[in-house]
Design a protein that fits this description.
Elements lengths: L28 E17 L4 E14 L7 E11 L10 E7 L7 E12 L2 E12 L5 E10 L3 H5 L3 E13 L1
Antiparallel strand pairs: 1-2, 1-8, 2-3, 3-4, 4-5, 5-6, 6-7, 7-8
Keywords: Signal
Length: about 170
């Protein structure tokens, strides 16, 4: 995985600049997947910023496309992180691996925005499928996670967070 800067999906955000701006939506929706994302922190996030290995993994057990019915993704990177940092910058790339080995993985290059809404952090990754199945296409992935517990950040730290995720691919 290539990363010139990084972030995560809850407290930090994988972020970047995609040439050409927002995803194209000239065609229609060709794939929607619904699942769960888990983000783990080693060492656990606290109120003090320190080098942290972040592992993001997602599983989509339900997708709408006839040949790409399930998917998964995973990435690991190290950045300075804490419960207090809500974002960073850099280029992010993720590969959606489809459940059928005959279907080529899709490379997703994306920008990230996050916002705190009602005790949750909503992370939106918008970008392009640049290679593999569905390329070229626009894609948007959304993950919803609980805001980190301040007391836990001040004591034992946050070792992982989990939340629902959805990806939509448009051609």
């Amino acid at each position: 995985m290539s990363r010139s800067g990084a972030v995560l999906s809850v407290v930090l955000v994988a972020s970047g600049v995609v040439a050409g701006g927002a995803p194209a939506r000239a065609g229609g929706l060709v794939q929607t997947c619904v699942g769960t994302e888990v983000t783990s922190f080693d060492p656990p996030l606290t109120l003090v910023s320190r080098p942290t290995e972040i592992t993001v993994s997602g599983l989509f057990p339900t997708c709408t496309h006839a040949t790409a019915r399930t998917a998964s993704y995973a990435e690991t990177f190290t950045i300075n992180a804490s419960c207090l940092v809500l974002g960073d910058s850099g280029t992010a790339t993720r590969s959606f691996v489809w459940g059928d080995p005959a279907v080529a993985p899709s490379t997703f290059v994306y920008n990230v925005t996050s916002s705190a809404v009602g005790g949750q952090i909503v992370v939106t990754s918008s970008g392009l499928i640049t290679d593999g199945t569905f390329a070229p296409a626009g894609a948007v992935q959304t993950v919803t996670l609980l805001t980190p517990n301040t007391l836990q950040c001040a004591t034992t730290g946050i070792a992982s967070v989990t939340g629902p995720t959805t990806v939509n691919i448009h051609q």
